[in-house]
Amino acid sequence: MTAHTYAYESPILTLQNVSMSFHNEPVLRDINAQVLDVTRPGMNQGQVVGFYGRSGIGKSVLCRIMAGLIAPTAGTVEVGLAQQAVAPGMVGFVQQRYPLFDHRTLLDNLLVAAERKYAPAEARQHVDAYLERFCLAPHRKKYPAHLSGGQRQRAAIAQQLLCSDHLILLDEPFSGLDVAMIDELKQIIVEVTTMDELNTVIIISHDIVTTTALADRLWLLGYEHDAAGALVPGATISPQHQYNLAEMGLAWHENVEAEPEFAQFVEHIKNEIRGS
Amino acid sequence: MKTLFSPNAQPRRLVFTTMVVAQVALLLLLWLFYPMQLFPSLGEVVRSLGDLITTQGLIQELWASMTTALQALAVATVLALGISYLTALPFFRPIAYAASKMRYLTLTGLTFFMALMVSSGHQVKLSVLIFGATVYLVTGMTSVILTTTQEEMDHARTLGMGEWRSFYEVVVLGKLDEMLEVVRQNFAIIWTMITLVETLYQSEGGIGLLLYKQNRYLHLDGVLAIQLVILATGAAQDYVFVLLRRVFFPYSSLGTA
Questions:
Q1: Which residues of A touch B170 (CB under 8 A)?
Q2: In this protein, which residues make up the domain named ABC transporter (chain A) (predicted)?
Q3: Which of B66, B142, B207, B249 has the most C-beta neighbours closer than 10 Å?
Q4: What is the pLDDT of residue A92?
Q5: CB-based contact (8 Å) between B249 and chain A?
C-alpha cells in the first residue's frame, strides 16, 4: 500500500441537506456530501467518486438531482468552483443505455453537444480532438445504430464531456461489459480525470471492485436507525459512509485490486451494503 | 426452401423473390382455370380494364382522384403534425384528444356540414378528406409522440438544451421518420374515403365515381378492374413512401430486426 502526496482545494460539488419525497413519502433524507478538488504535484488529477446503494434505494433520484434534472424537495446542490446552483446541462449524465440521438451521425451527435458551449469552428476542433482521443474518428459518419456497445458508450461520454462543466455522472457504466471492455472503460475514466484538474466522474455502479479501484472517494447510500433501532425513512449518505480512499492509501494505484488492504475494504463495503 | 417454413428465418433474397412470384402465378392460374360462378374471369377483367382505359378515361379519373388525395394528405399532414406537436403544451392536449376521437364520426353526416361551410363541390370533397385524414393522422402521430421516454428527454436536457429545444431535437427531429410512417399507413384511409366522397359530389368525376357506376350497373369485371388499379396505385404509393424514408431517414431501419 503506497500513499501518494495530495492536497485538497476548493469544493467542486456540494450537496447540502438534500431531501426528496414523492407523495409525502421520503426517498432521500438530509444528504450532506462534498467533493473537493484534489491536487497532486506535477499532474492534472481529477476526482472519481464511487457511489453505491442497494437497488431501489434512490440512487437514480439522487443522480437526477445532481444533474439538475429534478429539484429536491429540500436542500441545494452546488457545482463548479463558483459553487452555482445546479441546472440541466451543467453536469453531464451518461445514462445506463448510453443514449445518443439516433437520427444524427456520430459527428453530428458530438457537434450538437459542443455547439452548446463553443462557436462552430471551435466546436469542430474540440469534436475532432475527442474523436481521436476516444478512438472514434473512423466511425464519425456512422449512425449510433451502427456503433458497437463500447463505441456507443465512448461516444456518450464524449458527448457529455463536450458540453458539461467538468462534472460527469456515469450510471452503471460497467454493466453488461466484458472484461476487455471494462478495462477499456477504466482507461477512459482515468484519461478523463487526468485531462483537466477539475474533471470529476461520479460512478453509480453495482460493480464494487472496479469502481472502488478507480475511486478516490466513496459514498454509500443507505438507511439509518433511530435510537429505538427503527429504520428512519429516506436513504442518506451518513458521514461514516463517506470514505476517503486517498486518505486510506487506496487511491491512484495501478494494480490496487491485488492489494490485501483493498480486498479487506471491499469486503467491508459489501457488509455495509448488506446491512443497509 | 426449409427457411421458408422456419420461424423468424431470413431466407435468401432469390429464394424469397421466387416464392412470391410462384404464389402470384398460382393465384393467377387458379383464377384463370377455376373461375367461380359469381366472380368474373381473369380475361373478362383484363378486357374490362382495357375498355375502361380507352373509352371511359380511367387514367384521367385516377389522376384526378390522386391529385385530390395528395392535396388532402399534404394539408392533413401539416394540420395533424401541428395538433400533435402542440400536445407538448397541456393547454392543447384536449384538442388533440378530441381530434383523435372524431375519427368515429361518419362521413355522410359530415359532408352536410361541410357543404354549408364551403362554396364549391371540390372544396367540400377536399375538406371532408382533410378532416377524415387529419383525425386518423393525429391519432397515429400522438401515439408516436407518447413513445418518447424520460431517458430521451433527460439526454437532451443534460446537453444543456432548454425544454423547447429538447422537444424539437427528441420529438420533432428524432421522430420525423416515424411520422412519415404514420402518414404512409393512413394514406389508405384517404383512398377509402375518396371513393365515397366522389359519389356524393359527382361533378368532378374521379375513380370513385367510375367505380360507383360500374357497381350500379353490376359490371363486376369493371369493379374488379378498378379495385385492382386502386390496389396497384396504393402499393406504388407505399413503395414511394418507403423509398422516401430510406433516402431522407437512412438511420430509420438500422435498428430493426
A1: 101
A2: 13-248
A3: B207
A4: 92
A5: yes
